[in-house]
Amino acid sequence: MKRKWLLAILFSLIAVVGLFGCAQKDEDTGADGDAELSVVTTFYPMYEFTQQIAGNRAEVTLMVTAGEDAHHYEPSAQDVAAVNDADVFVYSSEEMEFWVESLFNTIENDDLVIARAADGIDFVDTSHAGHSHGDDEEGLVIHGVAAHYHTGDMIELTAELDEDVAYDHWHWYTRESADDEWETVSGQDSAEFKYEAGEESFEVQVILFDDEHETYAQSNPVAIVIDNHDHDHGHGDHDDHDHDHDHGHGDHDDHDHDHDHGHGDHDDHDHDHDHGHGHGDSEGVIEIVGLADHYHTGDVVTLAAELNEEVDYDHWHWYIRENQGDEWDAVSGQGTEQFEYETTGTSFEVKAVLFDDDHNTYAESEPVKVLIDDHENKDPHIWLDLVLAQEQVNTIRDALIKADPEGRDIYEENAEAFNAELQALHEEYEAAFEGAEKRAFVVQHQAFGYLAHRYHLEQIAIGGLSTEVEPSPSRIAEIGNIVEENNVPVIYYQQGANSSIAQTVASETGTETAVLHDLESLSEELQADDLGYLGAMRKNLEALQLSIQ
C-alpha cells in the first residue's frame, strides 16, 4: 500500500512538470505549440541582431557564411527555397547586399515580412571619416586656378581663409569627377598646393582642421582642366616624357605610375600571339593570388602569379581588359611575377603570361576579375556604429512583431536588453577616446568610416594592400610615407589576416600590426574564442587604443 501511494505521488509530480513545460513552450512559441518563426538573414550582423531579439522563439538562419563576400553573394536555389518558406527575411541594405533586389524578383512568398535594417538611416560618404565636411565653405577659398593646364605642368594653388586662426592642419583632396570619392593627396599639408598635372582633368578641394581634428573650414571644389590641345598623351610612349604622377588618387605620391594602362607598345616586345586564345598546350599552370573581393578607385591592386613548377624563365607579361569581348592589352612596367596597378574606377580582368626564351607562351593563367566598387560614394558599414546598430535592432524587432504579434513582449524585452548592452559599449568607446590627441588610425580596408565619424577619429585607408602578396619596395616606401606623415604606430588588418606579409610591412615601416573586425562575417578567430558581435567590438576598441591616445 505504501509503495502504491509513493508511485501515485511520483506520477503526479511528473504530470505537473510536464504541464509546466508545455506552458513554457506555449509562451515562447505560440499558444498552439507550433514551431517557431522561420527567419532568414543575409550576413553576420543581421544574424546576430536577429538572434538576440528573437531568442528561442524563432529559428534564425544565415545565408552568407564565413569566407563568402556579402556584397556580391549569389543566392543558391536552396537559398531561394528557404526564403520562400520563411516568415521573415532580414537584410541590411541594397548598398551592402547588391543582390537582394534580384532575389526579391525570384521569390514567391506573399506573406514574407521583409526587414531592411537600414531603414531610417542616412548613408554618408565616409571616405574621409572624422572629417565632418560641414557647411563652412564660404570662408575658405582656393586661389591661383588657371583656365587650363597641360600634362606635366606644375599646378600651384593657395588656400585663403577669411580670418586669422592658429590652426595649420591642412588636407588637400582630389577626385576625377563629382561621382568619385575624394582622395587625400599626401605631402600637401600646408595652405599651398603644388601638384604635377596628369593626363585627366580633376577637381580639388582643401580642408582646414582644428586641434581636435574636426573640420574648421572647407572650400568648394574647383575644377582643374587638363587640355593638351588634342595631342595624344594617353597612348603609346607619352611623347617620351616620364610623367611619374599621382593622378589625383590619394596617398600614392611615391608610386611609379609610368604604366601604359593596357595601350601602346606592349612593353616594346612584339609577341605575335593571340593571348587568351589557343593556349591550351601551355606546359605549366599559373595561379593568380592576392585578389581581394573588391577595391576602391585609387587602390593599388597587388597580385602575384604562382607557377606550379620550377622553371628558369622569368619573362612575365600582364594583360588587362575591361570586358570579355575586348582584346587583351599589355600593361607596361609589369615584367615580373608580381603585379601592382592603381585602379582608375573601372572593373577589369587581368591575367599573367610567362614566356620562354624564344618569346613563346610557356604558361598562362585564367583571367581573374578585379572588381571596383565605390559603393556609389555611400558607406554601407553602418553596423560598426554602435548607435546606428541600435536603430537596426529596433527595425528588426518591429518586423518580428509584425510577423508574430503574440511575441511582442518577448521581442521588445530582448531588443531593449541588447540595446542596453550596445549603449554601454558605445559609452566605453566615448570614454576611451575622450581627450585623445592622436586620433588617426591606418587601415588596410576602408570599412570603419562610421565608427571613425561617431568618435571624431580619422580613418586612413591603404587601399588594395594584400596580406597574401608582399608589396614591392616602392609600395612599402609609399606606405612608410603615410605612416610617417600621420605619425601612426599601428597598421590594422581585417579579421585575423595578420600574416607574414603584414609583419614584413610592419618591419619595413617601423610599425606594429593589429586586427580590426569589420564583421561582414564571423572570423575563425572569433569563433574559436566564442565571441560574437559585442566581443568583437570590444576587441576593436582595445586594438584602436593602440593608435588613439
Please give the structural blueprint:
Layout: H1 2-29, E1 37-41, H2 44-54, E2 58-62, H3 77-85, E3 88-91, H4 100-106, E4 113-116, E5 140-143, E6 154-161, E7 169-175, E8 183-184, E9 192-196, E10 202-209, E11 215-218, E12 222-224, E13 284-289, E14 300-307, E15 315-321, E16 329-330, E17 338-342, E18 348-355, E19 361-365, E20 368-370, H5 386-403, H6 408-433, E21 440-443, H7 449-454, E22 458-461, H8 473-486, E23 490-494, H9 500-509, E24 512-516, H10 524-528, H11 533-544
Parallel strand pairs: 1-2, 1-3, 3-4, 13-19, 21-22, 21-23, 23-24
Antiparallel strand pairs: 5-6, 6-9, 7-8, 7-10, 10-11, 10-12, 13-14, 14-17, 15-16, 15-18, 18-19, 18-20
Helix pairs in contact: 2-5, 2-6, 5-6, 6-11
Written account of the structure:
The protein is an alpha/beta fold and 549 residues long. The chain is built from 11 helices and 24 strands. Helix 7 (449-454) links the parallel strand 21 and strand 22 (458-461). Helix 2 (44-54) crosses helix 5 (386-403), helix 2 (44-54) packs across helix 6 (408-433) and helix 6 (408-433) runs parallel beside helix 11. Mean pLDDT is 80; it is low at 1-33, 128-138 and 231-282.
Essential attributes:
549 residues; alpha/beta; eight-stranded mixed β-sheet; five-stranded antiparallel β-sheet; 11 helices; 24 strands; 27% helix; globular
